[in-house]
Amino acid sequence: MIASLTGLDLATAVAWERTALLLLPVLLAAGLTLGCRPTPREASAAMLAFLWQVPALLALNLLAREAGWWSFPGTDGPRVLGLPVDIWIGWAFLWGPAAALIEMRAGLPALLAGAALLDAVTMPLLDSVALSDGWYAGEPVCLAAGLLPGLLLARWTRRDVRPLARTLVHAGGWGLYMLFALPAVALTVEGGDWTAALHLPAGPLGWLGLAAALLCLLAGAAAAFEFATVGQGTPVPVDPPKRVVMSGPYAYIANPMQVTSAVVMALQAAQYRSPALAGVTVAFLLFDAVYAAHYNRVHIARAMPRDWAAYKAAVPDWRVRWRPYRPGTPTVIARTGDEARRRIAAGFALDAGIALRRRRAGGAGRLVFSCAETGIRARGIAALSRILERRSLPWAVLAWTMRMPLVLPLLQAATYASIRGIVLVRGGAAAPHRPSSHAR
């Protein structure tokens, strides 16, 4: 487009175009920030939208390249997986803070429609991108998987609602950073290619490393979901929990997300033999030792000094406990008539420091776990998982797996179906056969 309008050669026109694609979104975001005068929470929401877009756009561009929707020809300037870095950053500013600030005034449907229209008009005019005949098939995918989650995250953060949904987006974004974006950038800097370096582990040591990485990812995700379900906050420092979270992985170590992230990054550094990823691991540890610790002291310790002091005195930052920190004496209620649930609860109650109570047979049938000190009240399979995680670390890993967002509903449904089937079978077997009056 610029080449045809200005008469410049294609290489010069593409260079000017890419500069504009970087600077215009940055200036737009800055102008909207000055014009809208967002509150600190609104500004934080816009920043989170940007942080989501960085790995999401890189992943979507890789998908587009593999699907043949579009590509960025030429070799000038730094690239990561074929995506020019200047276009990548500008795109993240446009779909991140700029879109989030516009959505505050225009609303979500209007913003999505405007973004789709803008892409439909401008992308065929760009000299820096080569579109295939079916590029429009990738547009709704990018809007649904890239723009929409970032806007929803910004909206929910701005309104301080849906902490679990926000945490799901955070977990997905952080997973993309750790397992995809950071390794891809590091290997590009070192002259490698993430897609070529990615491979299955070799030998027992490699599979052991993979198992350790998966275990760390599970613990990190469980810690994030504990922030949402118990603390009503998210792992992001600008959006902290409303209470001191002392359960889940936090009962075993004080900074599970930072430690597990550093371990996963160190394992990837070993897998890819990457000094850059080893440097990222050190950066993670320094961040936790300096900024995260300072933030906890300034915000959480001042807001909840008694709970925080008791927790920090019992749970170390860098050493995993075998037995969890167990504040208070939770109560588990099991229906007397349900022998299976009662025996399960009784079998674990003593070891987990739990007071067991029985409900009359006419009460509700689900197991109930309640702990005032940690703010937890759970039912059914979730209650059983809370009992298990108070025993020791291996049981806790099982409990965290049981509470994963996709796993818990399936376990609850399967348990309900099995119990209902048992009740129906017992009811049918116990019902006496009464002959009809005609038989008499």
TrEMBL record:
Organism: Methylobacterium terrae
UniProt key word Transmembrane: yes
Signal peptide region: none
Keywords from the named record: Membrane, Transmembrane, Transmembrane helix
Transmembrane segments: 20-36, 43-63, 83-102, 109-129, 135-156, 168-187, 207-229, 250-270, 276-296
Organism domain of life: Bacteria
Protein name: Phospholipid methyltransferase
Keyword Coiled coil: no
Upper taxonomic lineage: Bacteria, Pseudomonadati, Pseudomonadota, Alphaproteobacteria, Hyphomicrobiales
